[in-house]
Amino acid sequence: MDEKNAQRRLQHHEADVVVVGAGILGCAVAVALGNQGRSVIVLERSLREPDRIVGELLQPGGVQALEKLGLRDCLEEIDAVKVFGYDVIYYGSEVQIAYPENVHGEEEGAVGKADEMRGVKRKRPEGRSFHHGRFVQRLREKVLAHPNVTVVEGTATGLVRSGYTDQILGVEATVQGQPDAYFGSLTIVADGYASKFRKEFRSDAPVARSKFWGLELIDVPLPMPNHGHVILGDHAPILLYQIGTHETRALVDIPENLPTASIKAGGVKGHLKNVVVPALPEQVRPSFEAAIERDRLRSMPNSFLPPTTNRKPGLIMLGDAMNMRHPLTGGGMTVAFNDAVLLSEVLHPSIVPSLEDTKLVLQQMQSLHWKRKGLSSVINILAMALYSLFAADDAQLKALQQGCFEYFKLGGNCIDGPVGLLAGIIRQPFVLFYHFFAVALYAMWIYITEAGALLVPLRAVLSVGVFYKACVVIFPYIFSELRT
Ligand SMILES: Cc1cc2nc3c(=O)[nH]c(=O)nc-3n(C[C@H](O)[C@H](O)[C@H](O)COP(=O)(O)OP(=O)(O)OC[C@H]3O[C@@H](n4cnc5c(N)ncnc54)[C@H](O)[C@@H]3O)c2cc1C
What positions belong to coiled-coil segments (predicted)? Predict the structure, then answer.
């Protein structure tokens, strides 16, 4: 059967599933569906090792999903670095935000609670950071070696539609300079942030308020090794995390039309030298300055795109093509791997014996849309809300930013909850709302009490504005998750 299917894929370009893109999501989905006995064709524009500044820190929730997919060993032999949590540096003072012990997500609730009752301490979850390209190549090795998957190096150029039903039947592509076509009962589009196909199926487009500019620092002594670093101050957030034995990624958020990055002020280089360098921990500065002179400055838009339900017969869009959030919290790959797990569950051959049954597949897509909320809406909302606070550009947001940092300093559940959400371990949106509004109330309290006694009545009145701002920050993202 495998042999016959392989021949069908190679000679007739036919399979159960055609996947566009062998990036994070495409590889995971191809392996997951291939493992279930589906015949899969993957079309990838370039099989060379990607050289990108994205997808370099995988949260513990992503590591768990990778394990479920049987792909955890892709984190080996790529010089990956263990990540135990974050070091948040706010105007020079630090707080360690370790991934929490004994925190359990919805799905493993029963086991986790039993462990706690027995007083058993479970292993602290770990993330991994690495060179994106090396990790993608490991994922691709798995796809290339899979007996049920055929990989074709070529660029998808269009979708093949049925003339009668408008159902998607596959993709047109350019392979080795020649036009070609590949057919599947199901076409999964996973062509990333600049998806060529997205606009055919939805009227909204990604919105980007800022870009991340990336530099690679060499042999830099970080204040807290094995932790991601978030640097906050009178500037948008700066991230630092080690991606190899000798290399550390610096990502500098630069909002649109920032005066300190204008041509007059020396452009991006000027901003890096004049604003970012002085904000960095002292031991990081020489290496950062060297990278400014040495590196080709590269940037990526930090996009927001709320999720939608797949409604087109024969087509599924996933990954960045369907849903994006600010990369501040490093959640994109965790969402993608979790989606691959969920997709393989809802399309399991015991539920959907034939992918030609498009009605049943679409029903299962509705189910996927809601099932993924536990993890993806938490990560989406948290990333967007936290970005607003961390890039604070007015007095109320600044008060919320300070409140957030002081909240972390309280320790205990004030750290475990938020970082458990960020890590993709706690998958309950309610926990996110609880901590967000706890931060808002704490920020109001600090705002009222930090000024002298005489100012307390005035501050008490103005603090309502802080709470209002918190609502303005979070509610649009909550609503964006509620749409069907
Ligand atoms: C600056 C930045 C930093 C980030 N950092 C992190 C992080 O630390 N941790 C994290 O979890 N997430 C991070 N993300 C998000 C993460 O990179 C994405 O969520 C993830 O890569 C999405 O996977 P994907 O498979 O949808 O897309 P991609 O990984 O981009 O894969 C898309 C694939 O499709 C291929 N392709 C595109 N068009 C075609 C075509 N027409 N035909 C054939 N193939 C095609 C591409 O070559 C590519 O291989 C970051 C994002 C940004 C912008």
Answer: none
